[in-house]
């Protein structure tokens, strides 16, 4: 008991508590994301029972329309996040979310139901800003576990919807989802804006105040902002051609290609099919457990394994978790397929599917979303994270929309084999190509993709070259040199420049 009190005091004393609270406030949007993703699984069985004339094609549109607007939301959010800021965008997401759920709750026709699903899909697309915000406010040691809270809270939202849908009418479930959507803007009112975004806009005093609130330590706040600003080039100094060239850098194109490949294998492993078609999936696979009960069990397993995954992400390398998760995904799905082919016990198939859901939460599902907020440079992180999420949601939509046809042509057994093989290929891809980000600062991650990796002095991170009266000179510093922090009143004003930073590194 005494050790727990000391541990809690240590968290409060060194500012981790404020950082954790801000991360939780931002990640709370993912509860609403879980509502959107899990709602079709409980809506479709009830709705088709009320309206038997609804065709299979119309049912697939109800499920997939919650995804088709995800790319639009992600792209719009990516363009807005660098302009209006991370905090304001997180608070603004409540508008499409609230409107969409109310349209669903009061819809009287199939068309209005589809419109409501389309609007709520914006929430999922724009919510990726939470990963950017968490990546920018956390330390390298805590970034992994706090970013992993996002997928965990998505699973919590899915579990709540699955549970409510088993005994509550879908209209009342939609009304509850609308009320919960107000949680994020309320919590974010007390959290600060991202200090890195404020610094990138030249608002150094506000950036320092936000960083001090998060770290509760004056020296730490100053040092982190100095590290961020020493090589930053103001947008005002760049021409349009230079800004356009930012997107052609190797440090942008390579992470983008790697993440799209990761997302492609993620979708083809069957993770989102089980998520969006949970009840119908268990009915088609043919387990002995009631399909509604099975979907609730899946939701509970996702919540528990999301917590396990958040713990593991700070103990193991990203590449190790992703490859191991993909390998186990393939084995469990192939196990379910083989059991189905041999007409084995239905409980064995259910166990394989539950294991598939479990191992997805410790790497394959959460890591590409987390890494989309880590791998891109600060100057275009918002836009590129939005573009990546846009492509990912397009893949999810294609997967969800074509699943009924895929099952029709390949049968449920054939789709299980396809998902298993794709998961194994994804495991090999992650092991061979995925970059490592565990325990690294955002600056260190960027250097993995930098064209000129020798630009910075590896001993202390300051540039080797400094301009003095028009001449280029070489400066070297000892590895143990401390950073001198001036405490003048104008330290964090808008005239912070590179030359001052170099001088402070002496």
From TrEMBL:
Recorded hits in PROSITE patterns, A to Z, give: MFS (PS50850), SUGAR_TRANSPORT_1 (PS00216)
User: Could you confirm whether the keyword Manganese appears in this record?
Assistant: no
Q: Which UniProt keywords apply?
A: Glycoprotein, Membrane, Transmembrane, Transmembrane helix
For membrane topology, the record states: Multi-pass membrane protein
Q: Does the record carry Ligase as a key word?
A: no
> Which molecular-function annotation in GO is an example for this chain?
transmembrane transporter activity
InterPro entries membership: MFS_dom (IPR020846), MFS_sugar_transport-like (IPR005828), MFS_trans_sf (IPR036259), MFS_Trehalose_Transporter (IPR050549), Sugar/inositol_transpt (IPR003663), Sugar_transporter_CS (IPR005829)
What region holds the Major facilitator superfamily (MFS) profile domain? 18-438
Its signal peptide is: none
- According to the record, the segments passing through the membrane are 20-41, 61-81, 88-104, 110-134, 146-167, 173-191, 256-279, 291-313, 320-338, 350-370, 382-400, 415-434
**Where does it live in the cell?**
Membrane
Gene Ontology CC terms: membrane
What is the protein name given in its UniProt record? Major facilitator superfamily (MFS) profile domain-containing protein
Q: Which organism is it from?
A: Pieris brassicae (White butterfly)
């Amino acid at each position: 008991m005494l050790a727990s009190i000391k541990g809690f005091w240590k968290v409060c004393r060194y500012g981790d508590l404020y950082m954790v609270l801000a991360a939780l406030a931002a990640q709370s949007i993912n509860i609403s994301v879980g509502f959107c993703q899990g709602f079709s699984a409980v809506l479709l069985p009830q709705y088709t029972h009320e309206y038997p004339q609804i065709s299979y094609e119309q049912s697939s549109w109800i499920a997939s329309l919650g995804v088709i607007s995800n790319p639009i939301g992600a792209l719009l959010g990516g363009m807005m996040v660098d302009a209006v800021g991370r905090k304001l965008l997180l608070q603004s997401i409540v508008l499409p979310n609230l409107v969409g759920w109310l349209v669903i709750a009061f819809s009287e026709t199939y068309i209005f139901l589809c419109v409501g699903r389309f609007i709520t899909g914006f929430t999922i697309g724009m919510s990726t800003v939470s990963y950017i915000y968490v990546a920018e406010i956390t330390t390298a040691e805590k970034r992994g576990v706090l970013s992993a809270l996002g997928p965990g809270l998505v699973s919590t939202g899915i579990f709540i919807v699955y549970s409510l849908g088993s005994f509550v009418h879908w209209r009342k479930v939609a009304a509850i989802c609308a009320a919960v959507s107000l949680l994020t803007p309320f919590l974010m009112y007390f959290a600060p804006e991202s200090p890195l975004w404020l610094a990138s806009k030249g608002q150094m005093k506000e950036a320092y105040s936000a960083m001090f609130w998060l770290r509760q330590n004056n020296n730490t706040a100053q040092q982190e902002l100095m590290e961020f600003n020493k090589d930053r080039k103001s947008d005002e100094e760049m021409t349009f051609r230079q800004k356009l060239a930012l997107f052609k850098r190797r440090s942008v194109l390579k992470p983008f290609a790697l993440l799209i490949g990761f997302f492609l294998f993620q979708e083809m492993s069957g993770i989102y099919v089980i998520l969006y078609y949970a009840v119908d999936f268990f009915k088609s696979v043919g387990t002995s457990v009631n399909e509604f009960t099975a979907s609730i069990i899946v939701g509970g397993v996702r919540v528990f394994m999301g917590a396990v995954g958040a713990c593991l992400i700070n103990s193991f390398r990203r590449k190790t978790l992703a490859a191991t998760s993909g390998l186990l995904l393939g084995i469990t799905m192939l196990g379910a397929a083989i059991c189905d082919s041999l007409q084995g016990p239905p409980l064995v198939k259910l166990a394989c599917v539950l294991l598939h859901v479990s191992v997805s939460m410790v790497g394959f599902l959460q890591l590409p979303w987390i890494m989309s907020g880590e791998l891109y440079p600060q100057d275009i992180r918002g836009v590129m994270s939005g573009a990546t999420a846009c492509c990912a949601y397009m893949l999810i939509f294609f997967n969800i929309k074509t699943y009924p046809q895929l099952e029709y042509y390949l049968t449920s057994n054939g789709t299980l084999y396809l998902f298993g093989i794709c998961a194994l290929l994804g495991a090999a891809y992650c092991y061979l190509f995925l970059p490592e980000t565990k325990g690294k600062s955002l600056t260190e991650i960027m250097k993995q993709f930098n064209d000129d990796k020798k630009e910075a002095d590896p001993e202390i991170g300051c540039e080797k070259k400094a301009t003095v009266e028009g001449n280029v000179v070489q400066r070297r510093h000892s590895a143990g040199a401390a950073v001198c922090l001036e405490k003048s009143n104008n330290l964090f004003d808008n005239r912070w420049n590179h030359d001052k930073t170099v001088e402070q590194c002496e």
